[in-house]
Structure prediction request, 168 residues.
Amino acid sequence: KRFKFPNPVNETSARIVAAGVVVISALFLLTNSTLVLIALTYGFAARVAAGPTFSPLATVATRVITPRLNLNHKFVPGPPKRFAQTIGLTFSATALVLTLLGFSSAAQLVITALIAAAFLESAFAICLGCIAFSFLMKLGVIPESVCESCNDISLFSANKNPQPASRA
Prediction:
């Protein structure tokens, strides 16, 4: 399937994408370019819809950069990462609409918040969207069936070729 979000997700790739989001978002703050916001919003929409398949940033991260890094890659459940990408889409689309309506200062504030979240993911593997996802699961807003592996972190190990453990 072309429109399938990966599960599990290589956290190294996710962090590289987050670093790219920081750079693109900072470029918007420096230039106030609507085209930069369109590219940022497209990237989030593409990743929400199909993971790295249609996102140039994610494709470079997953197919070019990550394979060349000699690391023990950690794999994490996909649904929380997709939720985080959806929040990024919401922020970038909001900033785009604000910019188109002439509220560039408000758009810059929204993008600054996005930079903060993406920086935490990139630098420290702190995924604020994933934390929100977990909280919403605990509240019952997101059913456990959406991410059964989120309750069993032992399913994913730090190796280069992960296979989720089978549940017998």
Residues 9-155 form one domain.
